[in-house]
Amino acid sequence: xxxxxxxxxxxxxxxxxxxxxxxxxxxxxxxxxxxxxxxxxxxxxxxxxxxxxxxxxxxxxxxxxxxxxxxxxxxxxxxxxxxxxxxxxxxxxxxxxxxxxxxxxxxxxxxxxxxxxxxxxxxxxxxxxxxxxxxxxxxxxxxxxxxxxxxxxxxxxxxxxxxxxxxxxxxxxxxxxxxxxxxxxxxxxxxxxxxxxxxxxxxxxxxxxxxxxxxxxxxxxxxxxxxxxxxxxxxxxxxxxxxxxxxxxxxxxxxxxxxxxxxxxxxxxxxxxxxxxxxxxxxxxxxxxxxxxxxxxxxxxxxxxxxx
Length: 308
Known about the structure:
This protein has 1 helix and 21 strands.
């Protein structure tokens, strides 16, 4: 028999539960009111092979364009963006399946995805400087409101790259949710994933973390989160400053196949830049000379001119 106290608690909770009808996700952003510009079909240019097989992050400096590769060696490669010619490169110490790179003076900040760390290395040599935890890291989950995952339409530029060996003592399940039900003997949950992009603005790091569906603004000196913004969808990847003043940034979502313009102070989204349905999948992304440069994770660089 249900006692009176439990009946009262159930009655009190009923209006709250009724406020969340099936398929209604109040926490998901409403993208319907955004101004939308479309990148024309045929406007995507596939340019050249990247130096390694699994590019997964870009940055632009006065020297050229950096490409962060998530292969076993975790190469950071500086190229000439006009032709893809390699200028120099190094491997990044302490990084595991890199996703995203941000050059910050003598430091390169790198998302070390599958050990859920943010790694600081020397930007000239790749030697480890420091390791940091990633806020919001964990297992990527899906909801009934999510769009299907996108796969690239490009053939791999290189032979298949084997995944890195598992870290001893950690579950081998990947970063995505999977079936949910775990082995009855499991003592810990799946390891999950971490940061997918980093931008730098003074003492602040803007870090996109897919498991949290959020962009965290972190003080790089104290490692205290100053703010956090919701992402447009479940698969955020690279981000790019939209102007030199760094007042706004474009944040990509690989499954939505689009970029979303955020205010860097409030996180409010004001615009959507929609790629054509036949475009490659966004992984790395940075603006250079009026074009948005992107890398797919099968070894290619592509770009499109930013629409007026």
